[in-house]
Known about the structure:
Elements (H helix, E strand, L loop, with lengths): L2 E6 L7 H6 L2 E8 L2 E9 H8 L9 E5 L2 E12 L6 E8 L5 E11 L5 H4 L3 E4 L3 E7 L7 E4 L8 E3 L10 E2 L7 E6 L10 H45 L5
Parallel strand pairs: 1-4, 2-6, 7-10
Antiparallel strand pairs: 1-3, 2-3, 4-5, 5-6, 7-9, 8-13, 9-12, 11-13
Amino acid sequence: MSTFKVIERTKDIGSTKSLISKGLIPGIVYGKGSDPVKIAFENKILQKIMHSGSFYSKILDIEINGKIEKILPKQLQYHPVTDRLMHFDFLRVQEDTKVTVEIPVEFLNQEICPGLKKGGVLNLVRRLVELSCNANNIPDKLEFDLKESEIGDAVKISNINLPEGVKPTITDRDFVIATVVPPTVEVEETKPEEEGEEEDSAEKAEEKSADSKEEKSADSKEEKSADSKVEKKEDSKPESK
């Protein structure tokens, strides 16, 4: 395991802003029964560790003023606007320190899983499982073999073999981690012939509507013409003496 050298932050080292401008990220190391220590970590190295996988479940060795400390990453804080890393929290641990970590689950033999071969879909309910264990006994991952799983099967925490001394933090129920569900039914797309029929139907409806408007217009003109003739006849009658 690599040892990462960090520097202790003092009043002379500068403000948080000046540290970040120098490529250093400020943070703190704390632990039960020990005083917290303010430190600064080189941003490039920290980013590399963060993206190497299982960051929050990996014990790291750091060197502070020549002394090696074992730590577990606990929290990262980012700028609310720029999303730039601004601060970190590390937990100082011993081999018998009890820690809570989130561990990924890997599903084996998906290519020969009977349920998936029949068109089923692996529905992940939990990508990570929160576990409680000693710092020296953190598993890299949890595994479940899908070689006998059928559609409708559920993978629960009781189906996964946990290392000795490792327990889930949820203890009041046998919770589900994943299920093999039936294939999703896709909505059939409209066939080209049906689309053509729909267009023809729409065109006919428009033609009928246009014809109807023309007929109504013609009827309206005829009615106006008839009314006009009646008015003229009435006007042409001689006045009674």
